[in-house]
Amino acid sequence: QSALTQPASVSGSPGQSITISCTRTSSDVGSYNLVSWYQQHPGKAPKLMIYEGSKRPSGVSNRFSGSKSGNTASLTISGLQAEDEADYYCCSYAGSSTFVFGGGTKLTVL
Amino acid sequence: QLQLQESGPGLVKPSETLSLTCAVSGGSISSSSSYWGWIRQPPGKGLEWIGTIYYSGSTYYSPSLKSRVTISVDTSKKQFSLKLSSVTAADTAVYYCARHVIAAAGSDAFDVWGQGTMVTVSS
Question: Which of A28, B13, B106, B120 is the most buried if burial means most Cβ atoms within 10 Å?
């Protein structure tokens, strides 16, 4: 089974763009496994921001975008705002009918 | 609008069984692409997938918890449940239920979440 590795933290200034990576550590699950991304503010439930790698649910700002290259998925937030400060998690199918979350990335808006 | 609400004891003794229920409202529990999942988050730590159930009763569990976890569904009551046996302090966490949309192989997302419920394992 595979695991997902994220950087522990990233930071950026208001108006800038940042990218959070999510790297699959096993290559045995094929190319069809698409990542979902979640935003979590302190004390709140996670919120779906991106699904199927690059699709945004209704109501999610178009400042959030997702992409994939090889075994690494990425979440990019453009035009960084103070309200974007939160923890972000990727999630994907891990093989054998199981699912896995990345370790999470704390985004700090400077 | 679909809403999920977890309920259950906030305190469980070590070695006992943790039992939680998730009530589904504002939508169907039996739609074709809707699975239902449990996720937990220990204090200060990341999210951990526990398991997922389809309305028909098919279940999928985390390998690390499989020996202790049972997830069931009651479509007549529009709810699904989590049981985690032989708990220890390491099972202390916020437990979330969520709708797990699985559209195709390798394509899934938890799109609606409950607010979460804190469960502490302590004597």
Answer: B106
